[in-house]
Sequence to fold (316 residues):
Amino acid sequence: MSISTNSELPPGTMISGRTRGQQYMIQRVLGTGTNGTVYLVSALANGNLYALKMGAYNRTLQAEIKLLFSLHKHWKETGKNQVNRYLYDADDYEEDGLIIPFYVMKYVKGQTLSNFLRSKGSEHIGKAGLGVLEILRDLHEADWVFGDLKAEHVIITDEGQVELIDYGGASQAGRSLHQFTEWYDRKFWKAGSRTGDYAYDLFAFAVMCIKLFNEPGLQKVIVTQLPQIRSSADLVTLVDQTPRLKRYAPWLKRALRGEFDSTGEAYHAWKAVSGSGVLNRYGDNGDPVTRRLKNALIWSIIILGITLLIALFFTK
Fold:
């Protein structure tokens, strides 16, 4: 029988896995929730930083670990797991007779989606959104649903990659979701059940976009609209009332109405409407080295042109 604790462990605490023997030193707390506490740790084996989650409830954490093992296997089979994207380690830690389960994931350093859009510009929602949909597509292909999708769970790394964090709300497809946020919940808007399927995540993605660009309007509907008459039609109206979502309005309405046949279809439709490719952290001007090369080429052309003009002038 496993027992758990809700107390936070101080920096410098050494976590030793009982079975696998891996050791980690706690650096600081990254976050605390109902399912446990997430720590930034350094691995003694290689010195790398990871995110270690220690569960408040064994059964809940074991469900997360099962999901991560499944994703790890799926990515390994598809050749996409070179950087341990999902799971690095899973074990138990013993402290004062208490057996505390934990798992270790890649540490994702970067900005939340909302902060990224504020700093880089709202036009980057196309590329960022495509990154989110790519991850959702892989999850759904592995028969899992993320479940608690929102901007706070989307991170844009310092390298410009899109990552999802906090898989505590994930569930196998076809099962009832146990962790969700009301604003993004399909059942809250009377648009479907709370059973996990690909359309549930796509619905939440659409609401996330609305909240990013028209949070006051969304909040007003939630506060003023009676629960018994609240519906996804209210969200469709908000899409039409949000100028910055005009380009994506047809896509968002399809997601809110559950009209996509698969996440793959939704991914390609978003890519087509946004004209997006890989997210570039330097924006449309390219990285600094590329910019310097472009500037050097421009000045070379200008100098060459001036030289030719002078040569023509003196040969007359």
